[in-house]
Every structure is written in structure tokens, then in C-alpha cells.
Amino acid sequence: MAKEEAIYNSQNFKPNKKKVFRPPYLCYFLIILYSLYILLPLYIILISSFKSDFDATQPIFQWWPEHGLSLAGYRRVVLWWSMILGGLRNTFLYYLPTTLISIFVNASAAFGFAKLNWKGKNAIFGFLMLTMMIPGTITMTASRMYMSILKWDSSALPIIVPGLFGGIGTVFFLRQYIMGIPDDLIGAAKIDGMSDIKIFLTLIIPLSMPALTTQAVLGFIGSYNSYLGPLIYLSTNTDAWTVQLVLKWCSEQYQNLTNVMMAFCAVGMFPLILLYLLIQDYILKGISMSSGLKG
Question: Are 49 and 120 in a shared domain?
Fold first, then answer.
């Protein structure tokens, strides 16, 4: 008996170092490969934007400029700076309030689907999820006709108003997050006399702030990069162009100079990169699908 205890004593256990501490080389390789897949296009944009006119017009791509780095592309970007600032102003004017309102609408819908009991909840949620399977290109023509009937052509209303009502994709994400909040916490709030609206505003919103921030940032990034919608509705109204339309039009003036075109691309990416650096902690916290309050 004593011999068996000695065998199974944890103090006598010696792990196989070759198996336990073996580095996951395959994981490292895949991570490096995927990082290169992401970073190489970014490197190509940046290094091309700093090329001279001579290097930019070479038929073979150069991984490093033969004549050194140059600001020739950015000097031409400065010539269109007032137009670019106008596009940035319109973009933030159209999409920032829309994003904030839509994230509140999405959160309220997610709370209703996650924590409130009402007849037909699962059926309605399933139907809304089904609408995600319909490609946007199918409804594009009908949406254009509908906006034309409302006399909203050549205005920013078609890209602002629909976004105010949120989207089922964000509702689904927030619903999963809110479901992680304990029911006992909500039950205790109801015992104290709090209504569903007050519970939503004073409990759900603060506890879901990381997820709300993440979805707001991702939603704004998607709107900021949107090109097709503004192209359809704002192509004839140059004063209302978003930054993507402005950058596209400006870069087309220098089709033979890739350094100028890439400089416009770099300028367009800079606001989003700056935004990510400022709130990256909130984004990383909100990626988790669990609120961390389960117990």
C-alpha cells in the first residue's frame, strides 16, 4: 500500500519535458504567415507612397525605392487638402451620430431578446437572423427605387436614416454578451423596484460598455470605409461626398503615379489607425463573448 502511495504521490511526478515544454512551432509558423498576409499589403501601400515619381513608374515593383524615400506623393496630396478635409467632415457628420444612435437601438433590442420574456421572441429573432442570409446586392435596386420615391436622391439621407435602426448582426453579438449577465442581478434590481427601462440604462449599459464600444468602433469603421452607398446616392452632389469618394476622385487624377495614389490611401487609413491606438484596450475587452459576470 505504501508503495502504491509513493507511485501516485504528486511530489514524485516528473513531467515529460519534451512533450510538455515543446514549443508549438506550427502555431508560430501559422501566426507569422497570417501576419505577413496582413502586413505585406500595408507595407506595399506605405513604401509605394514614399517613392519618387521615377521609382513609382517602374514596370517592376521595388520592395525598397532605388532612389531613396521621397515625399513627392504627399506634396500632391496637400494640393487637395481642403477637399479631403471636407470629405472627412461629411463622413464624421453622417456616420458618427448614426453609429451612436444605432448602437443604443441595437443594445435595447439585444436586451429585449436576452432578458425579457414575451410571446414570439424566439420566432422573431430567428426571422431577423434569416434576413442576414439575403445578400445586400439583391435588395440594392429596390432600396434605390424606394429612396427615389421619397425624393431623397442626391442627398445623404439614404445613407444616414437606414443606419439609425441598427442591424441584426450587432444585435446578435450584444444579445450573446448580455445573456452572460446573471439573471439574479436583474432579479435583485426588480425586487428593489427598478423598471425594465431603468435596469437597461443603469445596469445593462454600464456592464456592456466594452461590447458596446467595440461594436460602435467596428460599425463606424464599416461606415467610414463604405464606398458603394455614397457612390450611388451622392455621386452627383460633390459637396456632400464622403472621404472615400474624395480620395477615389483625387487618386484618379494621378493614375500613372502609384506613389500619389498610395499616398491618398495612406491618408485615408490614418484616422482609423489613430482611432484604434486610442481605444484599443476597449476593443480587446469587448471582443470576448462573455461578460465575465457569470457565477
Answer: no
Looking at the fold, whether 90 and 61 belong to one and the same domain comes out as: no
Angle between helices 209-224 and 258-286 (to 10 degrees): 160
Q: For residue 107, what pLDDT is reported?
A: 93
How does DSSP assign 154-166, residue by residue? TSSHHHHTGGGG-
Contact yes or no for 223/95 (Cβ under 8 A): yes
Burial track 50-85 (b if 16+ CB lie within 10 A, e otherwise):
bbbbebbeeeeeeeebeeeebebbbebbeebeebbe
For CA atoms 225, 231, 232, 236, the dihedral sign is positive
Q: What is the CA radius of gyration of the chain?
A: 26
Domain span at residue 188? 77-286
Measured CA to CA, the distance from residue 30 to residue 155 in angstroms comes to: 46
Q: Is the pLDDT of residue 10 over 60?
A: no
pTM metric for this prediction: 0.78
Count the neighbouring beta carbons within 10 Å of the beta carbon of residue 230: 26
Among residues 91, 43, 131, 35, which one has the least CA distance to residue 272? 91
